[in-house]
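ENTRY TYPE: protein
WANTED: fold as C-alpha cells:
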Amino acid sequence: DDAYRGRSIFPIREDESIFLSLAAYREHLLADTLTYAFTQAKDPDNLFVGAVVQNCFGKVLEDGTIDPSGKPCKTGLEVVGKNSAGKDMTKMSDAPPDHNGIADFCAKPSFRKYCESGQVRVLYVNASESLGPAMARYYASKLWGGETYFIQCDSHLQFATHWDDKYIQEVKATSNYPKSVLSSYPPGFTGHDPNFKGVRETPGARLCTCETKKDEPNAIVRINTGSGYRGTEPRPTQIPYIAAGFFFARSEFLIDVPFDPYLPWCFMGEEIALSMRAWTRGWNIYAPRKNLIAHQYRPGRMGLPKFWESVDQFWGRPGIIYRAQAKVLKRIKHMVGYPDAKRESIEKEGIEVVLTEIEEYGIGKERSWNEFLEFASMEMDEASGRVVCHANKWCNQGLKD
C-alpha cells in the first residue's frame, strides 16, 4: 500500500470494463453467482472477477498438505429442535470439504473461456485462517487489474438482464459523477429457480437510517433502509451510507478510499467506516433507482458456516472472536467519534496498535467529521457514549441530487 499511495497499481482503462469483487466464505452459491453475473451481463467479455475463496478444503496435516477424505469440516450451528423451555436447540455436525465454486464455474463449457483468459482471478484461503469479510474485501481489491469500474458485492446473488450496462448508465446519471458511489441493500431471494431469467427490476430503496442494537456483544452503529423510489425520479438521489454488500463506483475510488488493512475479525462497523471515509474524501453516495441484483438473506437456522465460528474453533476458545472484535472495533469507534475510543483512552488500555495508520485510512480532508454527522442526521451523545440516529428527512424524500 505504501508503494502505491495516492495512485493506482495499473492505469485505469477507459473501456467500460467492470471489476467484480467477491468475498466468499464457504459459499455454496459462488458458482451460481458467477453464472448469473456473466449470463445476464450485456458485455461479459468486459467483466472481470476477483474472488477471495475461504473454504474448508479438508484436514490440514502437519506437513501443510490437505487430506480431503471423510468429513473433516463442520457445518454451522443448525437448529435441531426446541428444549423444555421452548428455546432453540442447536448443534454443529461433521461435514465433507466445501465445493470449490470457482472450479465448478470454470468447468462449465460456456464459461471456461473467461477463466482461461484471466477474467476470473482467485485468492484461496483456508477457512481456519479467515480474518472476516472486511479483510477478505481488502484482499479482493488487490486482484483489481485496471478495470474502469469497481463493484463490491456478496457472493450469493442473482442479477438482472444487462445489469452491467444499467449500473454504468445509472452512475453516470448522478450529479457528482465521476466521484459517485451507487449503493443499496438489495431485495432477497430464496431457493433455486431452474427457469431463472434475470432479477425482476423493482424500485430501489434508500439507505437513510441508522441504529445501535444494544443486545450485540460489541454494539456499534449500523445502517438501515429508508424510503424507496416512486419510479418517476429523473436521476438518482443522495444517501449518507454505503452498504458493504453492494456498491458500484469508478475505480478511482480505490485510490481515494483504499480498503483498510487493519480490520481483522470485523463484521459490524465496516459500513459506517466506509461511508464516513468516502464522503469526507469527496465522494457522494447515491441509491440506484432500480434493484438490479437480489441477495440471499440467511437466517441462522439454515446452519450455514460463519467465519466467527471458525475463529473460535481454531483457538479452541468459544467467544474469543468477540474479545478480538472489541479491540479492533476501537479503531472504527475512534473514527466515528465514540467517547470511549479517544486516543487517550485507547493508549491507556495499551492497545494503541489498533490506530496504526489511522490517518491514511480514516476521515478525509475534503469534508469534516462534523459535516458528515450533520449530513447523516447523526449525533454523538457524550453522556451515554452512544450514537443517536435522527430521522433523515432529506434522504427519505430524495431532496438532494
